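Appendix C reproduces, verbatim, an entry submitted by the partner laboratory led by Prof. M.T., so that reviewers can inspect both the input and the predicted structure.
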Amino acid sequence: MFEILYQDDALIAINKPSGWLVHRSWLDKHETTVVMQTLRDQIGQHVFPIHRLDRPTSGVLLFALSSETARLMSQQFATKQIEKTYHAIVRGYVEGEAIIDYPLVEELDKIADKFSTPNKPAQDAITFYRGISKIEVPIKVGKFDTARFSFVELKPQTGRKHQLRRHMKHIFHPILGDSKHGDLHQNRAFTAYFGIKRLMLHASSLNIIHPLTLCPITIKADLDDNWQSILNNFELI
């Protein structure tokens, strides 16, 4: 059973666990247990996707309960009326706040995007980030005797594929548990010390305008016990 964060006659939002595909995909054609079908069975009605979260990302995931509502909400996402807030644990110490303004070339998957046009020009991509807390742990990584990690807030201003993961890599603070854009040695050190192996990226909140009432709504997803057990060891920056 998914944790339902918000539900009315038009919308439903859940706290998506890490490891779940939103819908059936060529990325894993053998996976039959996906969020859309499971949520449909849980509430007894069809749901319509509005946006997506990568499989390893947890947090707020919003669906419409009709195709018309999905269309209206998709317009909000397309016109950047939606505000998203994520939290992540990254390599190294991140202090203060800043904006990453670094265009990204579309990242195509060999299977899922095999019919997409390659070699497109880079697209604008902007991310706000803020350091919250940090930790240094006594585990050797490469030539260093300790490993340093930071807990950060991320607010994407654009919606490019894997934007947060790629932007944090760009500033040399890759997200822990990121097998594609992260640091393998740091990932192993993090897993060895905390005993948790997953992408440490969570969609914490989503600010929207309700498509029918036109009232602003904030939907929040709490960090799970694994996150909390790790963050209890961090010190505020």
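Residues 3-236 form a domain with the Pseudouridine synthase fold (CATH 3.30.2350.10). Additional entries are available on request from the coordinating office.
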